Amino acid sequence: MLDDGRVHALVGPNGAGKTTLFNLLTGFLQPTSGEIRLFGEDATRLRPDRIARRGVARSFQITSLFEQLTVLEHVLLALQSGTGVGLRFWSGEGALHRFEPRARELLEEVGLAHLAGRLASSLPYGQKRALEIALALALEPTLLLLDEPTAGMSLEDVRRTIDLVQRVRADRTVLLVEHNMGVVAELAERVIVMQAGRIIADGTYETVRHDPAVVTAYLGQVE
């Protein structure tokens, strides 16, 4: 059970089940037993698109997607997909024009407004991750899932990403998978620790970092 309006960090060693949990929450995997409840309703057998329309969005890496589209065009397509109406081939670019004001707002929110006309494939790594978050925000999520948002980043980009998550968290619940304990300590109000598919600790960062089971399973390996 996640707390509304708070930032949660999901941590644990490789193979703990973090990505599997994200895949279950977003409908990309089906559970072999039990049920998944989102916002008080059963979502166990829902397709990913149905779960997204219920208010769950997940950031995905875009490094190999739509390499010839601009930053703005990526967000326009994400906004279009959020309507649940397919883009007809004969509609042309005009079908997306009505989404442009909101798309530019989202790019402003993630600090990419000045790069709207640039090819997404040409962005530095940190800015690509910011664009991923913009694409997730285009779905107007109540629950935002961020999968290792600072992985592979320079210290400067990590700082920018922390600031970005702080900005976009308003009126949303955030669940992030993160291996950088400094990021977890700064962002997360609640830390959930997994090992071998089970939750072994749940609490504030200061609480879980001193839990003997956590020190043995995870934090002790990186500190």
Task: Describe, in plain words, how this protein is organized in 3D.
This protein has a domain at 7-55 and 141-222: Rossmann fold, CATH 3.40.50. It is of the alpha/beta class and 223 residues long. 40% of the residues lie in helices and 15% in strands. The protein is globular, with a radius of gyration of 18 Å. The strands form two sheets. The protein has a six-stranded mixed β-sheet, with helices on both faces. It contains ten helices and eight strands.
Instruction: List SSEs in N-to-C order.
Output: EHEEHEHHHHEHEHEEHH
Shape: globular
Structural class: alpha/beta
CATH class of the domain at 7-55 and 141-222: Alpha Beta
End-to-end distance, in Å? 28 Å
Count all strands and give the number: 8
Named at the architecture level, the CATH assignment of the domain at 7-55 and 141-222 is 3-Layer(aba) Sandwich
| Uncertain runs | none
